[in-house]
Amino acid sequence: MRVVAGELGGRRLVAPDGTSTRPTTDRVREAIFNSLGSAGVLEDALVADLFAGSGSIGIEALSRGAEHCVFVERDRRALRALEENIDSLDLNSRVKVLAADANSVAGRLDVDIVFADPPYDFDGWDRLLGALRAGLVVAESGAEIEAPDGWATIRTRKYGRTRVTFLERIVPDEQPTSPADS
After folding, report:
1. pTM for this one?
2. Which of 41, 51, 87, 166 qualifies as a FRET site for 178, CA 20 to 30 Å off?
3. pLDDT digits (tens, 9 = 90+) for 86-106
């Protein structure tokens, strides 16, 4: 696994041992970040990587221009891999790592974009999205995600078994815009 592009492009990342995490493939990360880059929403953004695992999504965001990333992960093996990746890429000044359950901290995150890549059997999307304050969520799942009240699906794509859904917070009296239409 590697950082796909940006200032850290080509650098190797370690993944945790075992099967408790499912790292996002290079192809899926490239598609996600090409869309965000085209929309111009990533530069200087504050982002969160929920269910972070090795941190590949948040690290890719930092490599491509995000200012700061909050990583949220509760698995000890994944936390060790995440911290090794952060140290080896010298990203300590641009990150915060929370060893916690994503649902327990979701409402306290003050970020622009949230990346959420829970286990495929995760069924707490309504609760998670209801707690988040970010304007944009990029969600990875194994099945379709129905946008709950207050959110609009602006894009969804399938890559093998992985479905990527871009959700935008609806501000009353405004139509959703699509920062990820590319």
Report:
1. 0.91
2. 51
3. 999 999 999 999 999 999 999
